Amino acid sequence: MMTYDLILRGGHVCDPRSGVNGVADIAFEGGKVAEVAPQIGTSAAREEDVTGLHVLPGLIDSHVHVSGWMGGAAGHRMLALAGVTTALDMAGPIDSVMQIAARTGTGLTLACIDYVRPGHTVDTTNPEMPELEAALARARASGAVGLKVLGGHFPLTPEASGRVIELCGREGAHVAFHAGTLDTPQNLDGLRQACELAGGQPLHMPHVNAYARGFQGPALLEAYEAAQILARYPNIWSESYLAPINGNSAKCANGIPESVATQRNLIAGGYSADIKGMEQAILDGWAHIHVYEGGVTRLETGETAVAAWREAETDIGMSYFVNPADTSITLALLRRETGRFAIDALATDGGGLPRNDLCERGLALVHLNALSLSEFVQKTSAEPARMMGLSARKGHLAPGADADVTVIDLDRRRPVMSFGGGQAILRGGEIVGTGTTMVVPPEGVAAAHALGLETIVAEHGSFRPVHHGQPPS
User: Residue 385 CA to chain centroid, in angstroms?
Assistant: First the structure.
């Protein structure tokens, strides 16, 4: 008699892609979804009673950081605890992302884009096309699926920013742009400029809420303006997050914070944008240092935080409470005239940054009847899967799909169980998963395998960061 590997019994399955929204059993076999039915008569090698819980396609966080530069070794553990099964690292550096994935994997599927950073991956703030072509080739050979312009932190000239997008469009590489250039800051002006610089090419616009923090006018009005700007560019795919904290680097060089964003946030709090201002901001509780403890990262201020910052020789993560709820909640909910969401996906900009809150804050919107559970799944699984070229295998629970599942306690807004490719990642709130499957371009397969990582090959052009419904060019 046939038996399945695993059956989850009695949970409320919510899968908008498949049109399933009710109590059902779901069976796994060979790492794939084998059957979804009101009652599965076949037995399984293992069965889990998930009565009273909700069974969702595995959560896909389309903006995380799990590298030595940002996020660090805590990232994979923190994502697993948050119920995430697939994620996109949005900066790299790719070599560090791959090494940490090999060393600290918890069973996730992970893709990465590599940063274009002056003094690191390019020489200057105005790299010409040949240098950018070489940077993309190196990134792909190391496993990255594309490039990231770090405008808000380490800006390029407008011309160079546009060249990165042009190159990735031509070469079928994913590209994201943290809005901001040498002549325009990270705000609504930066968002407008970034959209124009895309020149009609596909572009991933991250953390839209970060451009509408109320620094130029009422936060709510800025949120509406951000959505209106993006509505004019169907070539641009966007995400936002709900956490009140941002994510910065506290690293200083020659007595000055390296990141432009860090400098601006110090000034916004009334502090000087130098190492003395940084220390005072930490002592006063305006700046929060990321402290690693018990396998996860937490926020700390005061003398303890200053000590950690000094011990790290300032090279440590930090956050400010600069994200107004007016903006973040509004952008998560706004719709266009077509009825589609103004911002395509809900992400976290988390990973090793302590804001992995898709369940904690995203499901709060479900409790408020602001989102249906199906809409939550759309923004946190189905739509990110489509953008990443993974919709044939992820973002839904139809037979034949990867057995990626997140089981949630909706009342408590917490994940209690998750699976990646049929293998347990989280069980009873405890991490049991190991390893990492990297989504890499064909050129990056050898680099991943050399580290013992499993791979999914992303052919050139498979990532498609355009607003849903935009036909391929």
Answer: 12
